[in-house]
Amino acid sequence: MSLMLLFGNAAFYPAAGQKPKEALAQDSARLRQAFTEACGTDFEIVKDDLGQRSVWHGAGTFWLVHVKPKRTGHYSLKYRYDYNDPHYTHVEHELYMNVGEKGCRRMVRSGAIASACMGDTIIFPVVLGKFTGHTFNLRRQENSPPSEEVQKSLRDIEVSGLYTEPVANPAGEHLKYVGRRVNYMPHRNGGFTAEFYATFEAVKPGSFNLTLAGRAPDSTIPKLTASGSVPVVILEKDAPATVLAQYETVVGTDAKRGFSSHSGNEYLMGIKILQTGDRIALPYQSFSSRRTAPKEEIGLGQMTKDAVPVIERFPFQADPQDRYNEWIIEHLKVANSWRKP
What we know:
Elements: H1 21-39, E1 43-52, E2 61-69, E3 73-82, E4 90-100, E5 115-117, E6 121-127, E7 132-141, H2 148-159, E8 175-186, E9 192-202, E10 206-215, E11 230-235, E12 242-244, E13 247-254, E14 259-266, E15 272-275, E16 279-289, H3 300-306, E17 308-314
Parallel strand pairs: 4-5, 6-12, 11-15
Antiparallel strand pairs: 1-2, 2-6, 3-4, 3-7, 4-13, 8-9, 9-16, 10-11, 10-17, 13-14
């Protein structure tokens, strides 16, 4: 799926001409009313505030509405506003969120949680800027939870084919090392890229930063630092969490000319939020080669064996300016959560 990230879709998020605070406060009141009228059957507003993005991060002012789901289901929240610009007459955003039973698996992706559970708080970001006439529409479909057999099969796939020789893991009390694998990506003009991933399983609540690197056999073990480390937060399986809606589609329309453009945004975080039992694969090494040969002759098995992951754990720190951390970081019950950019 090809996505246009927020900074690449700046046409919908103007840096200039933002409304004064008084007008934004009035907008928030109108938005609360409109959201409740459209979504009150399924979501209860528990909080709302304004989030300002810097020009470096795509600019724009957002209304961040924090809601608790009243029932499970697969939800599609669409909001529309007048664009007041020669290019478009109006724009529609559609955000997606799946809500399962309490204690469900939240489907952790690379940079965000892809679903919520009953008891969680969901943050829906709604862009404001100079835009007017926001309206909301909510669609819901019943969930169809996978059977126990399907869930077991999916869990088995996560660990199938891993090279499981143990490695030193200072984070093992909270994040168990499961094994490693290589992803082989052939190039169109010959050669390939190999990316190595270490798979972990969350076993105990905690928060820390994880640094990964690779080393060849018999080489010196690299001394790792916290620079470039991954902030990790592990929750107990049934503990509630605050979840940021991660993906939306955007359609800008000029009704007068019959023209529309389509794009998408991802609200990703630099923090990995897991619950006990979750598994996550993190990259630790990659290289490219001009060698052209059948995949079975490349020696991927030996590569995986030779590329040993080196793991280091550091105290938890997260940069609020990294991606969309600033919208979620205050809701994490961790110590020393802020690091200046």
